[in-house]
Amino acid sequence: MSVTSSSTTSGGSSLDDAPVSSFHRRIMAVAMGGPFCDGYLLGVMGVALGLITPALALDTLWTGLVAASVLIGVFIGGVVFGPITDRVGRHLMYVLNLAAFVVFSALQFFVAEAWQLVVLRLLIGVAIGADYPIASALTTELVPRRLRGPALSGLVLAWWVGYGVSYWVGWALTGLGDDAWRWMLASGTVPALVFLVFRAGIPESPRWLASRGRIDEARAVVREHLGPDVDADELLAEPQREQRGGSGLGNLVEIFKRGYTVPVVFCSVFWICQVAPAFAVRSFQPQMLSAFGVESTYGASALITTLAVAGIALGLVVVNRIGRRPLLISTFACITVSLLALAVLPLHWAFLVVTLFAAFQFFEAAGSGLQFVYPSELFPTDLRATGVGIATAMSRVGSATSTFLLPIAADDLGVRGTLGIAVVITLAGLVVSYFLAPETKDLALKDVGLAKAVSRS
Q1: Are the C-beta atoms of 270 and 429 separated by less than 8 Å?
Q2: Rounded to whole angstroms, how far apart are CA atoms 415 and 343?
Q3: How many CB atoms lie within 10 A of CB 146?
Q4: Tens digit of pLDDT for each residue in 229-271?
Q5: CB 182 within 8 A of CB 105
Q6: Residue in 437, 439, 277 with CA at minimum distance from that of residue 365
Q7: Considering only CA atoms, which of 167, 154, 209 is closest in space to residue 49?
Q8: What is the pLDDT of residues 369-412, one digit of tens each?
Q9: Global pTM value
């Protein structure tokens, strides 16, 4: 079913159809700060870990804890702070979240024990997990529908840019001696502080204000930032909820009570099926390439990663043109075929192996932007951050589990057998997407409830 809506007819353009302005572009740029810092803070650990291990005398257990603590934190952050964001508002959490990036990144410079680093990385992970529902909800609610797909897909592009920049910065800091790893980890303070300054001036979401009955404040935000020609009357139709205290965790129950079980399942499953193979392959790609006989594994990995960024850019361009549903299904089909070829074909040429790995990364990246798009478009304003938070948390269960189990599976099944498991996971994602993915590219946020009736279109 294709979900569509017309714009308001009461004079002026609706929020969904407002003319694109410098304010909208600023929202998009500032929203990318969180994912950029996320990619940076995760990526820089990949450079620093080899120096941290001898410096803090990490054994295998502590090394694993240092690496996994961020992913555990992301799970906690998504589950806890998505509902809290729906309860207390977007703006406050938007600023506090990035302030946490600044503080915890800076404190990493002073760690003296392994447990201190684990705790700080866990807290950084919580902040990362919290930023996903905060940034995506605010972006969804402030930009017009024609920008929504590219803006939300751009969050994934920002993650990859941050991830890549962290490696260059880490490499540049390797010459600072025994404390180089401290400077690497603390360097995340710089981008976090820059984006914190820009985020401070972003207003509260008028849709969230209206959902809390604060109509006059919502109108004031629209008038000040979007102009008098944008009609705010549609805010009157925003479903209103009583403003209650508490942690907001009641939304975890509310989202199912109000009939959003299918969107929760769909968003969680397709996200897991994308990231579980992707995280595992990216984490161990040089070793897997070597098992196929590729000699220049790091050079090949660099090339593959570059093509992944091109894939994200492609997804950003086409998400509004071909639609969400065709993009998701077609990319799942392509990554399934790529992994199946790696798992079963007798590959004797390094070029072909690298090409298939690159195809997997390219098409996975092209579809990955939908990880922010679908959850943001399938849940109403008062449950949007909760829905994104749940999907984020579930995705990190998949990525952490696959990354942890891949070396074990490779020992027992070999690389091809392990890739065979990845084929099954992506095939499951393809099937679920075929039966559950709706088309939401023309969706007006005031009609988001219609998207519960997900079906093939």
Answers
A1: yes
A2: 8
A3: 17
A4: 777 776 766 555 555 444 455 677 888 888 899 999 999 999 9
A5: no
A6: 277
A7: 167
A8: 899 899 888 988 888 888 888 998 888 887 777 766 666 666 67
A9: 0.78
